[in-house]
Amino acid sequence: MTFLEKSMSARQLSGVRVNWMYFGLVILGISAAFLIWARKADVVDDHRRARQLVLYYTLSRTEDPVIVLGDSIVEASTLPRSICGHAIVNAGLNGASTASDLGNWLSQALDAKRAALIIVSLGTNDALVSATSSKQGFGDRYRALLAQLSKLTPQLAVLEIPPVEAKGRMTVAMQNEASATITEYNSVLPDVTSQSGAAFVALPAMQKPSTIDGVHLSSGGYQAWDRAVTETAARICS
């Protein structure tokens, strides 16, 4: 028996043991939560690196490509392979936002090469976490991204953020909040693009339902989105 145990009553000793047991359970809970978070972060980082490597391989065999940069809406799209002799390269990254450092990510994949045109489609993920992303902050981040991308191409274009719908996990309340934020974000894009020497591209009206889950585009949604992308890409043909 230890000195501590000798100097305590049975009730005190029992209380200490319970407290230490509780403390141990708390530590185990924190450790488990950290491991889960770390694994999720590793999955995100692994996908980011894998996509960048694939982009590097793709871009290494092309000259003057049209690059479509953005989030999962871009990554899940089925773009034409080329337009008037320029390869169209899908540089979508699931989960990407204006805070994802896509400028450096794409620059490393290009490896000192340049693009004929970069079309950017971002903002949905920013809107879905709007509690930490003000309209001013969104505009500042988009402006900073375009400043980076302007070093990689002579032509830049920015697509309007597509709408979301109350569908799947997207409740009516969530849709209303996200839609209000998207409207705010879209309102600053014309000024941001004008100040950055880029073109702002409004999306055509989308058939409803335009999404499969409230966020990601359905075939009807992609009809409008694809049209905006291909018409924008065609500008380099003249």
Short description:
The protein is an alpha/beta fold. The protein is 53% helix and 11% strand. The protein folds into two domains: 3-38; 62-237, 3-Layer(aba) Sandwich (Rossmann fold), CATH 3.40.50.
- Report the portion of residues in β strands: 5-15%
Which CATH class of the largest domain?
Alpha Beta
- How many strands, which pairing sense, and closed or not: the largest β-sheet? 6 strands, mixed
Number of domain units: 2
Detail the poorly predicted runs: 2-7, 31-38
Mean pLDDT, all residues? 87
CATH architectural label of the largest domain: 3-Layer(aba) Sandwich
Would you tell me which CATH topology of the largest domain applies? Answer: Rossmann fold
Q: What do we call the CATH homologous superfamily of the largest domain?
A: SGNH hydrolase
Q: Give the termini separation.
A: 90 Å
Strand order in space, largest sheet: 2-3-1-4-5-6
Helix-and-strand structural type: alpha/beta
Question: Roughly what percent helix?
Answer: 40-55%
Query: What's the shape?
Result: globular
Order of helices and strands: HHEHEEHEHHEHEH
Radius of gyration: 24 Å
Number of strands: 6
Count up the helices: 8
Protein name: Lysophospholipase L1
Domain SGNH hydrolase-type esterase: 70-224
Keywords: Membrane, Transmembrane, Transmembrane helix
Organism: Bradyrhizobium canariense
